[in-house]
Automatic annotation (TrEMBL):
<protein>
    <submittedName>
        <fullName>Drug:proton antiporter</fullName>
    </submittedName>
</protein>
<dbReference type="InterPro" id="IPR037523">
    <property type="entry name" value="VOC_core"/>
</dbReference>
<feature type="domain" description="VOC">
    <location>
        <begin position="7"/>
        <end position="124"/>
    </location>
</feature>
<dbReference type="InterPro" id="IPR029068">
    <property type="entry name" value="Glyas_Bleomycin-R_OHBP_Dase"/>
</dbReference>
């Protein structure tokens, strides 16, 4: 058997406007990107990373526009943490696509950047015993 792949999760969202969307995410997350250029911004989350990449610079060229996937954050603190994150998203001028609501997997909301990229925050439901 070969060695397993090792690394940290790294999500890239393609965007038309890195500057505008990085500024919104900085307000929402409460911290600045660790790397920033007009074509790329990178945020660190524990073991994971979120990058915003200018869609016109992506190689090979992307065939679809943003909005077909989402970056999800599992929050500690239950529904209150999700409600607080939804308020922060509104204050950061993200578009709320789904108000905080209970779903099968937990309590969640979804917001979008101006280009359609989605950010979901959720608090997982308690696991069955």
């Amino acid at each position: 058997m070969s060695e397993p792949l090792k690394g940290a999760p790294y999500t890239l969202l393609y965007t038309d406007d890195v500057t505008r969307n990085a500024a919104k995410l900085e307000r929402f997350f409460g911290f600045a990107p660790v790397e920033y250029t007009p074509g790329f911004a990178l945020f660190f989350f524990g073991e994971g990373k979120l990058g915003l990449w200018k869609i016109d610079a992506v190689e090979p060229r992307a065939k679809t526009r943003p909005g077909a996937c989402e970056f999800a954050l599992s929050l500690e603190g239950g529904p209150a943490a999700v409600d607080a994150a939804a308020a922060r998203a509104f204050d950061a001028q993200l578009t709320i696509l789904q108000e905080p609501t209970q779903m099968d997997f937990g309590y969640t909301f979804v917001a979008a950047l101006g280009d359609g990229n989605r950010i979901r925050a959720f608090a997982r439901s308690a696991s069955p015993a």
